[in-house]
Each structure stands twice: as C-alpha cells, then as structure tokens.
Amino acid sequence: MPDKLDLDFVRAQFPAFSEPTLQGQAFFENAGGSYTCGPVIDRLERYYRQRKVQPYAPYEASRLAGEEMDEARSRLAAMLGVKTHELSFGPSTTQNTYVLAQAFREWLGEGNAIIVTDQDHEANSGPWRRLADAGIEVREWRIDRETGLLRLEDLEDLLDDNVRLVCFPHCSNIVGAVNPVAEITAAAHASGAFVCVDGVSYAPHGFPNVGEMRPDIYLFSAYKTYGPHQGIMVIREELGRLLPNQAHWFNADTLYKRFTPAGPDHAQVAASAGMADYYDALAGHHGIGGDAAARTSGVHDLFRAHESELLQPVLDFLSDRNSVRLIGPRMAPEKAPTVAMELPGPGEDAAAKLAGHGIMAGGGDFYGSRPLQAMGVDLKKGVLRLSFVHYTTKAEVDQLLTALDDVI
C-alpha cells in the first residue's frame, strides 16, 4: 500500500476543482457538506436522463433503475462490513434519527432509560431527549468542560440494567475528537444496552468498518461523503426486527424499508453507488486490493494519514495564539480535521473576513449548542469552524494560515 495519497488523481475526480467560479478559493467548510465526486454526478445525470421512471417494473428503463438502486445498497453495505438488507436510505440523517426515536418510543417501557451525550449535534440528541415526554428516563453522558472529551468511566457510572440504548457521536462536529466506538459499544453491550452512533462528522474522513465496531445503529449523511443529499443508516438485524415497523404495513418484512416511511428518492439512491465507484477508483489507483471492506479500509487509512499531516500545523498555529481558545484535542491523530475555536469576537465575523482572503469557512453554533454551552462558550458569539477533508492540499492550508494570521 502506498504511503501517500495521490492528490492530483483525487482532485481530478471532483468537477469543483476545475470550476471557474471556485478558482482561488480554498474550501474549509466541509463539515457542512463536501464537494460531490464525478461518479456520483455522472450517475445522477444518467438516471435523470435515461431512467427517471418508477423502478422495478419489467420494462428496460425501469429494470435498470431498480438495479442501480440495489447496486448502491449492496456495494455500500459491503464497504461498511454489514449485510445488504441492514443498510437503508432516507431523506436525511436528521429524519432517519427522528423515525428511529419514534420506533423506540413505542418499544421502550416504563422504567427503561436511554443515555445521550452533550457532545452531539442536535440531530442525534434532540429526538432521543424527547422520549422523556413518553416517560422514558433520559440520562446525560457529559463532556469534560475544559477538553470537550467524553470519558468512558463516566459512561460506566450511568449504565445499569434499566438502560436500553446509548447514543453518542463517532466524532463531534464541534470538538472533533474521535471517540472509541468499539470500546464504548462493548461497554454498552456488556450492560445489555443497544448502541446508536452518529457518524455524520466522521464518515467524510473515511468510511469505517461498522461490522467490526459492532454498533447496532450507525448513521451518516451522503452529502458529506462526496455523494447526493441522502441519509444512510445501518441498523443491525437483531435490533431492526425488535423495533416496531415505521413504514407501510406491507413493507414490515423488509428490514431496509421498516424505518423509511416515505418513499425513497430513486435517483439519489441510485447515484449513491457513485461513492463506491470513487472508493474503488482510489483503491485501484493506489494498489489497494482485497474485498470491498478491505479496499475501503485502505482508502480510509490514506485519507486519515493525509488529513493528519495537514491538520497538525493548523492545531500548532492556533495553540500558539493567546486570543484563541482551541476546542478539542491538540494532536492530529486524536482528531478529525474539524477545528472549532472561540475568538474574542463572533465566529461569523471572522468567517466573513476570511472570505476576503479566499477562505470558505463558517461561524456560529453549527447545531452544536449543547457542547458549546457545556464548555462555557457564548452562543451569541459562537465559534469559527474550519473543516477540511482528504482533497485539501498543503497549498490551501498555507493559504488558510496566512489568512488566519491577518484575521485573528
């Protein structure tokens, strides 16, 4: 396996990098949504041009439309190390989480408890917290106020025989710390609880092997992983069969339909196979072999190595600034390249100034008001957030650091 990611090859797969209107601008708001890779765009366009019909009928256009939807599900499931029918699509991760929470609302009984964190994006916190209205006890696994980190020993203090579900992020969109999913999952399972992991802020940095980590639910958003605007949800069969069906009665026996009450966006589901095309192209170009999960793991490691190399200078630069409160870990291997910082003034003001230097970034609370409040950040001021992924170059990071030197 090569030591380095071939950035020229990577960037050639993204039309955005040859788009005239984007030239000279460095994109550092990837946590809000990534650029879309060419294979996804090609599949989406082909579907709309050739196959925009009701799928799964016997005529040719319909048959091909259904086959492309099935291909997306089977290939992505293989990449994530799970069974094909354990993966489903929905309009967004927020919607998928909401539907799941309604299933748990019906399934849980008096005396049951769930655990949520205050490190989460609101989409993986709010729907679960509302179960308190149905008499379910909601316990909060709280972050350290200084570091923003979750401690496993604090979770273990909350676990007992009443806890049926533990919800936490693989990576916070504010703190950026990578949580040890396998270790946390093992602790929850040992106590008899199921596990729901919000992978929205981690999956852009390489698809994980969900099968090996063993959470019962894993959710992420395709529009942040170089794909269309779809929420992707893995729900393992044991749990999926226990929870009440949330879809049409005639879909109750099909696991990947049980928690998607609305009909799927056929074109976007089909286009999601383009993400698998992209990973396969990267694996082939870099000489990474094996089955789908092994190829995905190899690409994941290339992504993380490249991102960490670029991230450390950014963390070092910000750590040296007295006017900056850097949130989360200071060492790149412990963190995704999502960097939030508290400044003397509003984060949005700093983002506006960076735009004048060709830096695309954002300021605010990013639906992460709970971790920010827990760490004492004024929500009216918010934070400046810088986020990048594997297609970011050293030249763009240098451009960012030069701009930051002027702005902060």
TrEMBL record:
<keyword id="KW-0663">Pyridoxal phosphate</keyword>
<dbReference type="Pfam" id="PF00266">
    <property type="entry name" value="Aminotran_5"/>
</dbReference>
<protein>
    <submittedName>
        <fullName>Cysteine desulfurase</fullName>
        <ecNumber>2.8.1.7</ecNumber>
    </submittedName>
</protein>
<feature type="domain" description="Aminotransferase class V">
    <location>
        <begin position="303"/>
        <end position="400"/>
    </location>
</feature>
<feature type="domain" description="Aminotransferase class V">
    <location>
        <begin position="27"/>
        <end position="240"/>
    </location>
</feature>
<dbReference type="InterPro" id="IPR000192">
    <property type="entry name" value="Aminotrans_V_dom"/>
</dbReference>
<dbReference type="GO" id="GO:0031071">
    <property type="term" value="F:cysteine desulfurase activity"/>
</dbReference>
<dbReference type="InterPro" id="IPR015422">
    <property type="entry name" value="PyrdxlP-dep_Trfase_small"/>
</dbReference>
<dbReference type="InterPro" id="IPR015421">
    <property type="entry name" value="PyrdxlP-dep_Trfase_major"/>
</dbReference>
<keyword id="KW-0808">Transferase</keyword>
<dbReference type="InterPro" id="IPR015424">
    <property type="entry name" value="PyrdxlP-dep_Trfase"/>
</dbReference>
